[in-house]
## 1
Amino acid sequence: MRIELINTGTELVLGDTINTNAAWIGQQLAALGLSVARQTIVPDGAVIGEVLAEAAGRNDVIIATGGLGPTNDDVTREITAGLLGLPMDVDAGVVAKLEAYFHKRGREVNQATLRQAMVPRGAKVMDNAFGTAPGLYVPAALGAERGWACHFFLLPGPPRELKPMFETGVVPVLKALHPAAAGREVLYLKVTGMGESDIVDHVERELEAMAEAGLEMGYCIGKGDVDVRLAGPGEVVAKGAALVREKVGEYILSEDRRVLEEVVVHLLAERGETVATAESCTGGMIAGRLTDVSGASAVFGYGYVTYANEAKVRELGVSAELLMRHGAVSEPVACAMAEGCLEVSGANHAVAVTGIAGPTGGSEEKPVGTVFVALASKGQATKCRRLFFPGARDRFKLLTSQAALEMIRRRLLNLTLEP
Amino acid sequence: MRIELINTGTELVLGDTINTNAAWIGQQLAALGLSVARQTIVPDGAVIGEVLAEAAGRNDVIIATGGLGPTNDDVTREITAGLLGLPMDVDAGVVAKLEAYFHKRGREVNQATLRQAMVPRGAKVMDNAFGTAPGLYVPAALGAERGWACHFFLLPGPPRELKPMFETGVVPVLKALHPAAAGREVLYLKVTGMGESDIVDHVERELEAMAEAGLEMGYCIGKGDVDVRLAGPGEVVAKGAALVREKVGEYILSEDRRVLEEVVVHLLAERGETVATAESCTGGMIAGRLTDVSGASAVFGYGYVTYANEAKVRELGVSAELLMRHGAVSEPVACAMAEGCLEVSGANHAVAVTGIAGPTGGSEEKPVGTVFVALASKGQATKCRRLFFPGARDRFKLLTSQAALEMIRRRLLNLTLEP
């Protein structure tokens, strides 16, 4: 099944908006064992007609996004109907929804908006739960007479409107058109604490040997983690996953796409335990990631951003003498920060980081990118790791926060802290 | 001048990588008064030939990214030469650079990598400062004989290799080909504290009246701010900018693309003042943004993430009675947090936030999205704003941190805090 993706939107070609829909749709199709043969982006307006006609001639499916709104430039609906020779009818259901939408907001539906209720005859309306523009599915049979036997999916551009519509309106049709998708499974094993090339070294050869049995694999690099994507027939995916678990099991943080902060908050909540944070170079990012998770308040109450040495002394009880002797970026200070944080917060665990984010402040002994991450837990020995993340400041902060959260995860699972 | 952009890369169509190059190139071209007529993305491999041939027939300029690496799938170079009927020569300069690159890493250049030294006869090599694959510029004259009078720029895919090469290798050629770019200027006025539609209401009509004189305008929506982009002849841009400053001046936070946290850190540093943070619902994001700025340590020493009520009492001295009477999400508690933070940190300014990020925890009186932001400064009355940011948790945190930082900026500039 050949599929092309067409994204329309002047904001996309001007660069005012990054095209995140394309990657998202690519992933959804990959999950079905399908892929995009070509993707075309054009500004709003009549040029969409040229591109649709080209694409209709060489594809089984066209997925078009954007151009369904109420302005003059939004012409995808009309151009598709014109291309296929389909008359447009007013859809009473859509009109009723538009009226309800506007009345709720104390306004009348205007004429421009009512254009959104025009539907090429025979096409199916896909509800838009988050906006006014409905989506349309035009089955291939409708255009066959003119020689365009191609399925058209016309979707709105805004991601929060497009994504639910794709899941509820497009995926079921594609599954019906492509029965091979039925027995197919996709699994994402999210790995942290090792780079893509290390993962490849551990598992790729043996996974590749499963390709004949239908296993497809890929890597999707995230923020501090890597998704190993396994796809294919259910039993082959299960075998591949078992191999990955055997080889790099302790580095797998989730198999359901949860990110590290979610896993840590959930593990703490299951155990009824709490964590506190004492951050220097990460400046609050660890606390920020923990509190990104809904329900974090059950496991996190206290965070300290002790950027100044004085703050380390006054808030965490780090001794001034220790700071003087070893410097703020040192193992003894990281451990003292973690232990002080454990004490003042009363939490079960306290993680502390101190390092040199750069671009200035490095030395020969401790270059920019050097960081110490310490973890103190009630009734256990405090542990510290020295790590090195040279490069940009934002990446340094991200990788340091990842290492700190991973240290908590490993302690909660009784894994060694120095993998 | 008609320009098409072609991005090759299987990772792009699979959705493993978001195509950020396209938006970036779109912005660079817009700065020159140029735009992308169409953008095409295809997987690695021979399909690039089909797309290049189509595009060469209808464009003055083609910018292609990706497919210049050492693997079998990297065929952009060879296919372009084939299309234009140009023989390939080994470029001694590129060979020398590849050898130096590998020797520095203690390795020998392999045959696959040496393919990168093949150059279509007459094409110009563009140096790659951050990788092994050089870029190529094939002037239109070289393909004219075969009827393809189109300028080809072949660039590597990784953004950190592509961007400097585009700036040093592509922009000068485009400027020479498009003399209208010469007298042209682009200015970004970064606005915060008002939405895009409010900005439009204030300035669009009068700016549109300058279109005849050559003013182009656009909006680029950022994280909590909006860039008003003005482009055109220098004196017209200056006039447009003067108008924007007159109408919404106090909301303009920078004219050099600096974001709010940079502006706040720089303003504090100029004044030799410091700020401390007391965060509940933002969970460290305000501290995190401040410490994203290099040099933040001069103006920021203390941050508190008092997620638990107990932490508000113990760390900031908020009275338990006040928490009981008004609830943690209230103006009195926000003010007490800010004043307590000012006291314990000894900073010149202290900002505090307390709110309901959701998805749970809302009430009729204080629905999810309600937040109080308070600012205490030495020798000045503490001020508090009640704001409402319904919607997703990450957006709530972002907009709340933006409002808090903006309150600091406004105080430092002696603007009213409740705009």
## 2
Amino acid sequence: MRQSGTNLPKVGRYNRAVVLDQIQLADGISRVEIAQYTGLTPQTVSGIVRRLIEEGIIREDGESKGAAGGKPRTTLRVNADAGCAVGLHFDPVELSCTVVDLLGRPLVVKKRPARHVTDPAEVVKDMAELVADVLAETGVDRDKVLGIGLATPGPIDLEHGVIVGAPQLTNWTRVPVQHMLSETTGLPVTLDNDATAAAIGERWSGAGRGVADFAYFFFGTGIGGGLILNHQVYRGGSRNAGEFGHSSVLPDGPECYCGNRGCLERLVNPTAIVAEVHRRLAAGSHPDSALARVFAEDPDAVDHAAIRVAAAAGDPVAAAVIDETAEHVASVAVDIANFLDVDLIVLGGHGIQHVESRYVAVVAAALKSRPLSRHIRVVEVEASPLGTDAAVVGSAALVLHATYSPQLSALVGAGVTPGSQR
Amino acid sequence: MRQSGTNLPKVGRYNRAVVLDQIQLADGISRVEIAQYTGLTPQTVSGIVRRLIEEGIIREDGESKGAAGGKPRTTLRVNADAGCAVGLHFDPVELSCTVVDLLGRPLVVKKRPARHVTDPAEVVKDMAELVADVLAETGVDRDKVLGIGLATPGPIDLEHGVIVGAPQLTNWTRVPVQHMLSETTGLPVTLDNDATAAAIGERWSGAGRGVADFAYFFFGTGIGGGLILNHQVYRGGSRNAGEFGHSSVLPDGPECYCGNRGCLERLVNPTAIVAEVHRRLAAGSHPDSALARVFAEDPDAVDHAAIRVAAAAGDPVAAAVIDETAEHVASVAVDIANFLDVDLIVLGGHGIQHVESRYVAVVAAALKSRPLSRHIRVVEVEASPLGTDAAVVGSAALVLHATYSPQLSALVGAGVTPGSQR
């Protein structure tokens, strides 16, 4: 593990990315403002802006008034349709696909049930079909497609673009999915795990825009996490950072498959939530619970989605269980605040659909009252504005991030983006 | 919060620091090896090395054989006595002071009880006297003193070099100690909290040399922490990262002064450990415990130090309590492994003197069996080789770090080192 030096071409690419990042984050910005915010000289900014305009990535868009008596400043904006990225989220039960513009805004999202999940070649074929579908539907010029971002359940081997094998993915032992999908589609493929992809999506076009340090909780079948520290994706030495789901919140709690006890994910997952609600509904009478009446007629109808909808509507049994699970999430959020002093915690993923505001309320209350540094500043919490599409929009953002974001790893590393292969 | 661009002078300073870092980390290294490890061109490396030799910071030291048939390579080493740094640790009960050479090796350590702690001006006077003492005793040339590193209990305001006020420091409300000490001594002063200083000391001359990502637990009166991520000190948005002591390890545990419950620091601190050992000794007969016999004669003799010495010697009561506290530390270490995927966890500070190996054994066992990524790699744990001098040696390392380390904040930030003032 060595620290690398840097050189002029890397500096040029980095500064270009820094300038583009400012334009992407702002709703219209002038050259003078970019120089102020980035510390770059006006000359450097002008040179980079000229080349970005020539390449069609940004455009001049009217003038704004400068300081009193100063000459008007030209507003710069990203040409959102100068390029696009495809995102694919491979969930064991569903494939989702999107095309996003240069600002990370989805033009379309298509989903289909995942078929033949035990046969990687068939899954890659389905992925390629779905990509062809969304490109046809949006009618974007193929030359403008920067690449495909593929988000999959972890663990993956980013170095080799390989899915190592997730609990639910039988036969996926070291499948070179990145290479296979690139061969089939003729497009470069960037691979990452779904929680990291979703975190990058938040940084690009969600709640984390312009935020230096934030933690992202991804609620899917399990609980994944992603970390953006100092504006950079933080992955850790073996690229396994962000496993918030395996924090032990009840030291004497039930055993988790991971080998730890009382893990957050063991207590807060769809199966556990459904089991707990069923237990309470079966154990007592709940005259004020609409969900209890459904349960009496058909217990199977009280599934995870029904519980979340009921909790959102204020059903007392469903709401109590959801709020208790949110308390566990809050404990881990407080640990993250104490360990990492992040600016923001983002909650996202389909697992909290309908109950986002309950989760946010419980976590916000904990962050206001328990971290040591709360008197200096309170860590914010937000639900992802990307909703259930966080992972698929995030997977497209992987491509934008690899192509455009100012990445220190490119400045002081070997200059190779992990997990990207053409 | 914006990402800054960079420029040629910053790149030059950064690359110089990267080269010096390689020489400092290696026990003899050639120009060719530096180029290989850093990715810098041989020309860039040669230019930087030439200037470092001219400035007397490094020297050529014999030749080693190059690759088969290649010409011999000149070995480069840091001139350890080309400069030195003073370290001061301000603990509410004790002032410690050291002078270290350019490799971070202490030439002397002096301690004195902290007097007049309620009068900041008197404390600064004592600090200045202690600095004069160690400089006189080591006889180093004043011109060679790079500066003073001052480590204090947090929280501090690094921006303004001010101690904000720690629980044990009455009258220390926003005292501009950095400026006061610099005025009195005529030397530049770098301020930081003691846990961060100790972590930087580990990175410079302790267990963390050359390690990209590690977490440091500092056991003093409380439990502090420091994080080195991607070879950089990670401080967080409000500079309060690393509060490992306030992780809630027992959700229903006793209330902590911080507002959380069952905090690690609440369970693992000298007072709590002494109380628990006394409780057990008073409650039952322990024929196999030498400590029980001491307790029977004089309970006050069974203090924190005596308990640690007894545990190290295998006393069953002391060892059981120490191992139980180590289990709590292990839980937080597992969380850090899951959240941050660090390479190493370092345990240090006077609070674990004599029982370092018991703590390391318990934490190592947990890191081997509980983090999710343990099948990919096991996170290491080590006791700090700096022992009880971790904070004072670390405070001197603050100066070396600010002067010599390749800091990304200097490359892509405003170029100002936080907390340093001349």
